[in-house]
Amino acid sequence: MATVSVCKYYPGGFSFDNCKRNALLEADISKLGFSSPAARKTGTTICGVVYKDGVVLGADTRATEGMIVADKNCSKIHYISPNIYCCGAGTAADTEMTTQIISSNLELHSLSTGRLPRVATANRMLKQMLFRYQGYIGAALVLGGVDCNGPHLYSIYPHGSTDKLPYVTMGSGSLAAMAVFEDRYRPNMEEEEAKRLVRDAIAAGIFNDLGSGSNIDLCVITKGKVDYLRPHDVANKKGVREDKVYGHPVTGSYRYKHGTTGVLTKTVTPLNLEVVEESVQTMDTS
Amino acid sequence: MSFPASVSTLNNYNDLYPDWTQREVSTGTTIMAVEFDGGVVMGADSRTTTGAYIANRVTDKLTPIHERIFCCRSGSAADTQAIADAVTYQLGFHSIELDEAPLVQTAASLFRDMCYRYREELMAGIIVAGWDPRRGGQVYTVPVGGMMTRQPVSVGGSGSSYIYGYVDSNYRPAMSKEECLKFTAEALTLAMERDGSSGGVVRLAVISEQGVERQVILGNQLPKFSTV
Where is it chiefly localized (chain B) (predicted)? Predict the structure, then answer.
């Protein structure tokens, strides 16, 4: 019994089928006067610094959808391996999935080699994947970790280029953060000074960039230890609305104290009404 | 129903994300290589830009491909890094098969094959230079488009336009190693002064039978010309 099957050849690479559909939908929607939903981006300030014993990574926690804040406390520092973490800016879904895929592959690789993974390996895997997608995966990453060769820090751009540097910033708030780094970075800092520097750089991004905000997350990676400080600094506390009635706060109360509005004059005018017609209509309770 | 021309309207530009967060990273660049008797001198600036922002002000554009073969990269940072990594792998494999040092011409041919085959997708201008026992110091240029040719002196990148006159008038055949270093440093400095996409420090490398010597000339140590 022979089965005749025609193997459909699936060309490799990115599938652009949905782009045509999206473009048509965009045109239809804009005719009705609405705008299509924007992809959620992490507006973002992320940065990293190499210090004496390791690396410090920092990130803000605001995720935006167009001009609205979609998540006030999202986590932008992603786990890659026990000794390597990665901050992500750009399209939130892209950074999340890309880091998860590489984390998974790196764990398999680490089991195969029997060694702790190296930061350069993670960098190679990330840059080769992003280059393959020619920039369509909008993930701008700050990769940092400590391995057998010491502490390493890389910045990775969506098109697949990477830079190995002692201090890097990425995201819409990167200029503000870089300004802080260029002023105060020194080689071989102590841990507290490095943490303070990263905290201040992210704070600069939070307060001077609209796309970044909320809290500051820090991740300190040293040989054999990782401190994931979330949140390290709650830079923007939400206030509590106070409305004290008889001493205790009542939120959302519309009661005003007696005497809030002073009465100047009071006039009572009785209205004399005559009953003209009276009719009774029974209510239908069936 | 026609396919609208601008699919890029899906990524709506809005004030929260400045232009340079959406632009590709390019090595704006000035790169240069000169042959001398016994080796080559290669030089590059150190600026990588995304639009008007300098993403890396201390870039190393002189990339080792093999022990005595380097390449200068200009154009898209992602494209040139990916090409250089691929050629490094191919050349390393080839060298192990041969059990001898690869020829500079081989490295240049590998670059040319990749740059020509994918010429529509790539934006890469590369200068390959090095030393091999058969032909000594050689410089091969592989500009955008994928042509490959050997030249005694070659310049590339956006800043090269400003120094063609300087290079043509100041190059003499049979210069010594020190003269080549001075020539390269001065040419790169002039280009960096005039080209906005080039700047930072000057990185130099000398490749000869003895090996590779690398130097950095910091901003305040660059050769000085007229102060106009």
Answer: cytoplasm
